[in-house]
């Protein structure tokens, strides 16, 4: 250890000084001796400190830095990474996951499905598992802090800086909390617009063994989408950030429209929803919902 070596060198130097001491150097020698004693005390303290934290498996320099700097907020950690985020929204079964896989393949994004992260959390046996499972079974929205933590972890663990966040934010509280905690504002929102009958047909035929793909839960999910998720799309539409895609078309045709949004030279296929725009998902309710 460097500090031990310094102490040894200093002691050696002092011994040489004592051996060669005479009247002329005596005063200087006393001063050096005093300094030496102070130095020894300081070194001992330092060595004790180093020993305690080394044995606690904590790097003492790292610990010192942590103790002296203010606690890092999630925002600053993600703020340093500055990821590019696209929110992929749309009703259950509108084809979000299907199109995200295509975007990943062609445009190098990382796909983060909030639903998949929550299902993985259930499987991992985490303490929140049962709560998440019950919420999903009922088609309800899991508390923001749980979903945001999972998303934040997934973003930080991945080296990519471009992410598709699929199926989140699902309500205004999700949206506001995510922006407040992470400081991330999406580049744009990809909105898959699809009528209820088509989504229902797709979900009932999805065949992925999902507990929530049964008619009772599907209806609850449609209701939650209308009441809680559409306002999020409305919010981003008012900021000119929504790119709407007609998701009722076959997969290939939908992807052609998606591609145009991600290819810079061909950009212009989307664009914000015009004022007074009516979405087909509103067939879920008797009257249409107006954006803008
Ligand atoms: N454009 C499409 N036309 C017909 N079926 C589709 C289309 N897009 C997706 N599907 C199918 O519909 C089901 C739901 O699609 P998925 O991508 O899982 O939707 P979401 O992620 O929005 O819930 C899947 O079985 C998928 O293969
Ligand atoms: O941010 C999210 C994403 C999903 N979910 C829950 O997970 C379910 C399935 O969501 P997913 O996006 O996987 O499927 P989708 O409904 O789009 O088919 C939802 O109904 C919610 O119960 C949630 O609570 N918060």
* Sheet with the most strands, sense and barrel status: 5 strands, parallel
Strand content: 5-15%
Return Rg in Å: 31 Å
Mean pLDDT: 81
* Rough outline: elongated
- Percentage of residues in helical conformation: 55-70%
Supply the CATH superfamily name of the largest domain. Answer: P-loop containing nucleotide triphosphate hydrolases
CATH architecture label of the largest domain: 3-Layer(aba) Sandwich
Structural class designation? alpha/beta
End-to-end C-alpha gap: 68 Å
The CATH C-level class name of the largest domain: Alpha Beta
Domain count = 2
What ions, cofactors and ligands are bound? adenosine-5'-diphosphate, uridine-5'-diphosphate
Give the low-pLDDT segments. 21-27, 49-64, 274-279, 282-292
Could you give the order of the helices and strands? HHHHEHEHHHEHEHHEH
């Amino acid at each position: 250890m460097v500090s031990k070596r310094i102490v040894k060198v200093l002691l050696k130097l002092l011994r040489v000084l004592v051996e060669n001491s005479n009247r002329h150097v005596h005063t200087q020698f006393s001063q050096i001796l005093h300094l030496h004693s102070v130095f020894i005390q300081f070194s001992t303290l330092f060595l004790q400190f180093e020993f305690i934290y080394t044995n606690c498996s904590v790097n003492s320099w790292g610990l010192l830095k942590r103790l002296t700097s203010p606690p890092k907020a999630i925002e600053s950690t993600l703020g340093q990474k500055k990821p590019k985020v696209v929110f992929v929204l749309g009703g259950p079964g509108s084809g979000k996951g299907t199109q995200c896989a295509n975007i990943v393949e062609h445009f190098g994004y990382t796909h983060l499905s909030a639903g998949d992260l929550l299902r993985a959390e259930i499987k991992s046996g985490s303490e929140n598992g049962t709560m998440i499972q019950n919420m999903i079974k009922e088609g309800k929205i899991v508390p923001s802090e749980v979903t945001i933590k999972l998303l934040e972890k997934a973003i930080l663990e991945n080296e990519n800086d471009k992410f598709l966040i699929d199926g989140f934010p699902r309500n205004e509280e999700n949206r506001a909390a995510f922006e407040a905690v992470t400081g991330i504002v999406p580049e744009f929102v990809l909105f898959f617009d699809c009528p209820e009958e088509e989504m229902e047909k797709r979900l009932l035929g999805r065949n992925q063994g999902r507990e929530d793909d049964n008619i009772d839960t599907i209806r609850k999910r449609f209701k939650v989408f209308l009441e809680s998720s559409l306002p999020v799309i409305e919010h981003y539409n008012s900021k000119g950030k929504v790119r709407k895609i007609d998701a009722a078309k076959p997969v290939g045709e939908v992807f052609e429209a998606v591609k145009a949004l991600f290819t810079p030279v061909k950009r212009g296929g989307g664009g914000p929803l015009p004022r007074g725009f009516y979405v087909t998902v509103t067939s879920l309710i008797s009257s249409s919902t107006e954006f803008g």
